[in-house]
Write a structure and sequence with these properties.
Layout: E1 3-9, E2 13-20, E3 23-31, H1 34-38, H2 47-60, E4 70-74, E5 85-87, H3 90-99, H4 107-117, E6 123-126, E7 140-143, E8 146-147, H5 154-167, E9 176-182, E10 186-192, E11 195-199, H6 218-225, H7 232-239, H8 244-249, H9 254-261, H10 265-288, E12 295-300, H11 306-316, E13 322-326, H12 330-342
Parallel strand pairs: 1-4, 4-6, 9-12, 12-13
Antiparallel strand pairs: 1-2, 2-3, 5-6, 7-8, 9-10, 10-11
Helix pairs in contact: 2-4, 3-4, 9-10, 10-11
The structure holds adenosine-5'-diphosphate and the ligand CCCC(=O)OP(=O)(O)O.
Length: 353
């Protein structure tokens, strides 16, 4: 039996779990309010806060770090890399701590894992957000100075794609899927024969989401940026964190938005527009797969809401079979990635800059 500690820091919470082989033994999610995290100027200043929570969790359930065979940490924003499980090394920790260009809570995981392990046990990351399987034409943005980047919910999307292939009784590498992760941020991608050949950058492209604006009309955005009303940090917060449902309805909770939509025409229009934009992205990704789509896979927290998912389905159900995996499978996907390596089913990839 292999025992794995899984750590997954997110923008509003830290998820921690213990797995024994594929079995979840115990898990907790520690929430962080916006006010609590706003006190920290840089993301890396949150290390002690998040590490202490994980240490408390380990102690509370009677474990020591040496009781684990490995730590499985969510991968951060590394330079573009292949899908798979990577062994965390000193160079990766230095990159995430000091060099990465984009601040994202997932950057904390491997760094905290490294400090907790202190050389005692291996640490692995699986399918970080910067997995890049783009084809050349996906990289062209429309202006040479800006290249499109592959930044998406790779861990959960690859995990549900494996589940769907199994359900369809097909090999993962033989399937074509359009996959929509509908969480606080949204990624919709075209996966051809196991490779995500195009996907909207969940931070600044694609549909608007509970917290993010997604793609915006470029001229109007430029005007806003030069209006003098926002500095760089404020503008970024406006499109990631305070955009989408938050901007229109003052909530990032789809359940609340749906409730409002029952009696309020404006809220109804906003929710319908989000479903409309998701359907539009799904249709675009199906076109990239030339219509050869085994299934449209819908996952993430918002996939739990039948009424909302029906708004999407009515626009895309003629394209292909729809498979729904509500919620997020990140914790089990991290444990499974580490297990495949510990059980010698696949070698851990070596990471270097
Ligand atoms: N049971 C549910 N019904 C409807 N919406 C839900 C449900 N559970 C979560 N959500 C919505 O899903 C979104 C968050 O999805 P989640 O995958 O948990 O996001 P993240 O991991 O990005 O924080 C929120 O808008 C939340 O309100
Ligand atoms: C940057 C792409 C992945 C992403 O948006 O993750 P979160 O929704 O967890 O912030």
């Amino acid at each position: 039996m292999k025992r794995i500690l899984v750590i997954n820091p997110g923008s509003t919470s830290t998820k921690i779990a213990v797995f024994e082989d594929n079995n979840l033994i115990v898990s907790e999610e520690v929430s962080h309010s916006m006010e609590e995290l706003e006190k920290y100027d840089r993301l890396m200043d949150q290390i002690d806060l998040r590490k202490n929570e994980i240490e408390e969790f380990i102690g509370k359930y009677g474990y020591k770090v040496s009781d684990f065979d490995a730590i499985a940490a969510r991968g951060g924003i590394l330079p573009p890399l292949e899908s798979g499980t990577y062994k965390v090394n000193e160079e990766m920790v230095d990159y995430l701590r000091n060099k990465t260009k984009i601040e994202h809570a997932s950057n904390l995981a491997a760094v905290i894992g490294w400090e907790l392990s202190n050389g005692e046990i291996p640490i692995f990351i699986t399918d970080p957000v910067s997995v890049d399987e783009f084809i050349p034409e996906s990289r062209i943005s429309g202006i040479p100075e800006i290249e499109r980047r592959s930044l998406f919910h790779a861990l959960n999307m690859k995990s549900v794609a494996r589940k769907a292939a199994k359900e369809l009784n097909k090999k993962y590498e033989d399937c074509n899927f359009v996959i929509a992760h509908l969480g606080g941020g949204i990624s919709v991608g075209a996966q051809r024969k196991g490779k995500m050949i195009d996907v909207n950058n969940a931070n600044d492209e694609g549909p608007f989401s509970p917290e993010r604006t997604g793609e915006l009309p470029v001229g109007d955005l430029a005007k806003m940026a030069f209006s003098g009303k926002y500095d760089k940090k404020e503008l970024k917060k406006r499109y990631i964190g305070k955009g989408g449902l938050v901007a229109y309805l003052g909530t990032n909770d789809l359940r609340e938005a749906m409730k409002k939509a029952e009696t309020d025409e404006y809220a109804k229009k906003v929710v319908e527009a989000m479903a409309y934009q998701i359907a539009k992205e799904i249709g675009g990704m199906a076109a990239i797969l030339k219509g050869e789509v085994d299934a449209i896979i819908i996952t993430g927290g918002m996939a739990r809401n039948d009424v909302f998912i029906d708004m999407i389905k009515q626009r895309v159900s003629k394209i292909a079979l729809i498979m729904r995996y509500p919620g997020s499978f990140e914790m089990e996907a991290l444990a499974e990635g580490a297990l495949r390596v510990l059980n010698n089913e696949e070698p851990a990839k070596e990471w270097k800059l």
